[in-house]
Type-2 restriction enzyme Sau3AI (Anaerobutyricum hallii), 475 residues
Amino acid sequence: MGTVKLEYDEFDPVSIEEYARKLIGKTFLEVCEEDIGKQSIIKEEGNYKADHENKKRKGGLGELIEERYFHYHSNNDARPDFDKAGVELKVTPYKKNKNGSISAKERLVLTMIDYYSVINENFFESHMWQKARLILLIYYLYDKEIKDRLNYEIGYVKLFSPPESDMKIIQHDFEVITQKIREGKAHELSEADTLYLGAAPKASSSKDRRKQPCSDELAKPRAFAFKNSYMTYVLNHYIIPDKNTYEPIIKKNIDETFEEYIINTINQYRNYTVDELCDLFYSDNEKIPKSLGALLVYRMLEIKGNQAEEFVKANIVIKTIRLKQNNKIKENMSFPTFKFKELVEEEWEDSAFGNYLRETRFLFVVYKYDVNEKLRLKGCQFWNIPYADLEGNVKTVWEQTKKVIQNGLKIEVKKGKLSSNLPAKSENPVCHVRPHGKNSEDRYELPDGRTYPKQCFWLNNTYITSQLEKHFFEE
């Protein structure tokens, strides 16, 4: 600490938080300027501001707060930043969305995963938990219109410890990740494997790889991180006061895992027809919505609205699947539309569609038509796309799509309908590209200035069928 006199009690988390709250409303530039003239630990001003403004300098804003406000030297120590108080400091961005809501801009990275040591750690003694059990969260508002990030303004400051209601899921996530490493599958880790705590890619280059203990296969460097969806919930529920919360699914202690509880609860209604489920969950004077898939699931889980707390935190998306009597699926599975001009600026490793599949866990709710053409619930399964499929066929289709758009989309009219040379279903066993707009006039602009109907990536119905558990096909 040198000769700097601290303005907070480094042994007391509350004192640290109270001092930190004085940051609210300040920009990072103001923090720097107010530190000038004090007994700063920064010996030379030099290019300090320019270095920390540099967006390529990961953690630069966090370092600035550590050194220019709390007056301790930033380091990569395994212990919490405020070791004497057991508090970890995290400076992280949030953003305002077009609909007026706010969300975390990114996941919250906790610590790198050491593949060799983590397989011998238990949860409560792990390096990860030492970093995660008590965090001083400093949220700043990200604004893409502001070019110099030192002008970002700090909006919220609060101590955060994962609540007891989340702990069982976070611990289970940790065990899922470490078990996969023990099985020699560190190279197959995906954020969609888990609910709140993820194994996030963390490398300076997409080509970086490191050794793992139980396999000769090299794996991407990864870090334990609270997922973006979880941090958005934390921001809205724990950090910002007077925010309404979503309804929790788990309202009491349970013996099974969260996923087992969901599956067992929904399976209670196995073989009910959709009409019978509507009679059961909707009163006579309630209007039954046209899109019943997700809403019936919420009712089965005793959720009155259309959002469940745990699903929001874990970024779980419900997808309804309808099996025909011949065990085939008629519909392909759609995803959000992409903008042509944005896709060509992306790289696969950080593409919108790639990240969506990497970070999303799906709940497939399966219905099947019986001999009387009545749709009956067959059950559900949790699913995330296998690593080999994502980095194989899906990546291939994404790269083909980017190349086609970059080279100038070839548009022609066939049998009165527009068509193009975007990847078709017949070209790939996993996914393809096709329209997903309201009509042919619902369009996005191409890089060359032309417009074309909105498109999205679709998973092939035959592929989805191959991913379903076998019991869904039994009578």
